[in-house]
Amino acid sequence: MNMTVQQLHVENVKHSAAALMAALAGRAPKLAIVLGSGLGGLADRVEGAVTLPYAELPGFPVLTVQGHTGALVAGKLNGVDVVVLKGRKHFYETDDPYPLKTMVRTLRAVGVEVLFLSNAAGSLRAPIGVSQLMLITDHINALGLNPLTGANDETFGPRFFGMSDAWDPALSEKISQAAVAEMIPLHRGVYLALRGPSFETPAEIRMIKGWGADAVGMSSVPECLIARHCGMKVVGVSCITNMGAGLSDEKLSHAHTLENAAKGAANFERLVIAAVPRLVEA
Ligand code: HPA
């Protein structure tokens, strides 16, 4: 019998969750961290790391972009059980929402309750400078798609759901407290996601600034939507790799993004490590 796309997805989540459960060997992480472009170094800070390449997790993304290697790393960060995801699929690479759905729903299926998203982003506000960090307080979905359109599988979540506290205010506050404790400057702002793969024109940057965005990127919004749909809490931090097009003279490229993400990565790692115990407190 031929399976439908949805049936195959349910099977993939089941098999990936079983593979992840086996690798976790009795540990029960409540927190998963998705590492954005150039921020993969945090995975090397995981203690007692067990690495599962995405290729061993059915339905997980097959990655194509330089700077994104596909692997899940489970272990401890600052004494806390976590799962770290190195790499994800962007909607400039595919129109298929299932790899991302499989990734997020597999985490949910093994008991993860909080998803910490990170990304490289362009700043739209002069005070939010290059290589600095921005706590994502809200988002604007300008991708032109939502990964949850089409038939809804009620076993994962409801057809309609609210997004007013999509980026969890209480947990975000704990990240702010960790930043203060570590003396890491942390801006707050609205992240707007566009599909890419081109960077924006200066006119587009002026437009989205007017819409109320503080930073722009090509990720994290789909992950947030899928996670909120299945009842997970979401927090996020952007690492600013450039000023939006037309706001400075720099030439934008993926190499430039990776180079400046690396400059912000040390603070990003320190912030996440300090925040992790606070995010799993009862
Ligand atoms: N625009 C979109 N995505 C990005 C940018 C940008 O300026 N910088 C890093 N990711």
Protein architecture, described:
With 282 residues, this protein is α/β, with parallel strands linked by helices. It has a single domain (30-279), classed as 3-Layer(aba) Sandwich (Rossmann fold). The chain has helices at 5-24, 98-109, 169-182, 202-210, 221-229, 254-279, and strands spanning 31-35, 47-53, 71-77, 80-86, 114-123, 133-142, 186-194, 215-217, 233-243. A five-stranded mixed barrel has the order 5-8-7-6-9. The longest helix is centred in the C-terminal third of the chain and has 26 residues, at 254-279. The radius of gyration is 18 Å and the shape is globular. It starts with a helix and ends with a helix. The mean pLDDT is 93. Hypoxanthine (HPA) binds at residues 120-122, 199-200, 216-218, 241-242, 244, 252, 257.
Please report the first level of CATH classification, the CATH class.
Alpha Beta
* Total of domains: 1
Strand order across the largest sheet? 5-8-7-6-9
Radius of gyration: 18 Å
The CATH homologous superfamily: Nucleoside phosphorylase domain
Give the class from helix and strand content and strand pairing: alpha/beta
- N→C terminal distance: 46 Å
Assembly status:
single chain
Mean pLDDT: 93
CATH topology: Rossmann fold
Helix proportion range: 25-40%
What are the defining features of this structure?
alpha/beta; 282 residues; binds hypoxanthine; Rossmann fold
Q: Outline of this structure?
A:
The protein is α/β, with parallel strands linked by helices and 282 residues long.
